[in-house]
Specification:
The chain is built from 13 helices and two strands, in the order αββαααααααααααα. With 287 residues, the protein is mostly helical. The chain has one domain: MetI-like (MetI-like fold, Orthogonal Bundle). The longest helix is centred in the last third of the chain and has 34 residues, at 253-286. The chain crosses the membrane at residues 64-85, 97-118, 138-158, 197-221, 256-277. Residues 60-277 form the ABC transmembrane type-1 domain. This is Sugar ABC transporter permease.
């Protein structure tokens, strides 16, 4: 009976997830083009060509920098804002509602907003930079390969930190208050209570939050595509934008499928490393 109840969900997952994954791997063994749309089987030649292309390794490097930058920034800021919102502040309900605004804003809308703010001539950011004498002329935030990645990371971090704030706030509200009061009685200050009581108590939630934000950020598409489309000079190209550009921009579906397959493999490796790091953290907490 149990397998019977599970069967509809298992069939749905297989049809919507596993079959497309298998079809993508199969597609990566063929080459197609706009001129010759009939697929031609080439085996692993597509992968060999990708590995020999320096653009692929630039995409790998950009994806790792993008994911680590966004995840670390949004989780660190989200944690400290959650600590602040967990205090008894005036207007606490309004503050908790306002902090969610960047997150509920659609990704495309947020990217368009920041694209106007980054404009080198009329952007709000450059107006402040020029007013305070931080630069002699407007900075091309999205057109300079040396700073474009930092610019898009900041936008993604700004949009994503409310998610981490909500998760951490929920975890903080479940911390045993008796342990905190006992630490106060023992003479522990705020910093000591933070590292000896609060952080160990929320480690399981923090681990899940880091894992979720890592997967979501690695596969995030909207902000980078609207802001830079992977440019300039592929300085912000990550796997989702590269797959879209190769598949739907150049109609090289076999190569796009190979990029998609490799992105899944790399993400699985990142998650595996993360899970290895997770074990000693949870075992330390249990001890």
């Amino acid at each position: 009976m149990a397998y019977g109840f599970m069967m509809p969900a298992a069939i749905l997952v297989a049809v919507l997830m596993y079959w497309p994954m298998i079809a993508t791997v199969r597609e990566s063994l063929f080459t197609t083009s706009f001129i010759n749309p009939k697929p031609q089987f080439v085996g692993l030649k597509v992968y060999a060509d990708i590995f020999s292309d320096p653009v692929f390794w630039q995409v790998v490097r950009n994806s790792i920098v993008w994911t680590l930058g966004v995840v670390l920034l949004q989780n660190v800021l989200g944690f400290f804002i959650a600590l602040l919102l967990n205090q008894h502040l005036p207007g606490q309900g309004i503050l908790r509602s306002l902090i969610l605004l960047p997150w509920v804003l659609p990704g495309v809308v947020a990217a368009i907003l920041w694209r106007f703010m980054y404009d080198p001539q009329l952007g709000l950011i450059n107006s402040f930079v020029l007013r305070f004498g931080l630069a002699d002329r407007g900075i091309a935030w999205l057109a300079d390969p040396s700073i474009a990645m930092a610019a898009v990371i900041f936008v993604a971090f700004w949009k994503g930190f409310p998610f981490s704030t909500v998760i951490f706030l929920a975890a903080l509200q479940n911390v045993d208050q008796e342990q905190i009061e006992a630490a106060k009685v023992d003479g522990a200050g705020p910093v000591r209570r933070l590292f000896d009581v609060i952080i160990p108590a929320i480690i399981p939630v923090a681990v899940v939050n880091f894992l979720l934000t890592t997967i979501l950020t690695f596969n995030y598409f909207d902000i980078i595509y609207v802001l830079t489309r992977g440019g300039p000079l592929n300085s912000t190209a990550i796997f989702p934008t590269q797959i879209y550009e190769i598949g739907f921009g150049q109609f090289r579906f076999g190569e796009a499928a190979a990029y998609g397959t490799l992105s899944v493999v790399i993400l699985v490796m990142i998650v595996a490393v993360f899970m290895l790091i997770r074990r000693p953290l949870l075992s330390h907490r249990e001890v």
